[in-house]
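Hi C.,

You asked whether I'd gotten around to modeling the 110-residue construct. I have! Everything is below, sequence then structure, no commentary in between.
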Amino acid sequence: VQLQASGGGLVQPGGSLRLSCAASGSTFSINNMGWYRQAPGKQREFVAVIYSGGRTSYANSVKGRFTISRDNAKNTVYLQMNSLKPEDEAVYYCNQGLSWGQGTQVTVSS
């Protein structure tokens, strides 16, 4: 499966971004899709997951601010990020099983 992430960029603290991840080469609708992030000098960490049935789960650090969703017709998973903080700055990766997207940089700075 190939995963193509996009939507990162520079945003001020308190701002919003929406990340997208388009999947190809798999039966998208039956797979769980996740977002992870990795800040410089830190390990990659879990951010959010959406299961094939639509249930979602979030890291405590983003709960209430981030929303993961999916569009099975477009084979795409989204991560809506609101109230961004400097500590959210990282490279964000989408994930499906053993497959990873190339990452998209999110920079939170005034």
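If it helps when you're writing up: The radius of gyration is 13 Å.

Thanks,
B.
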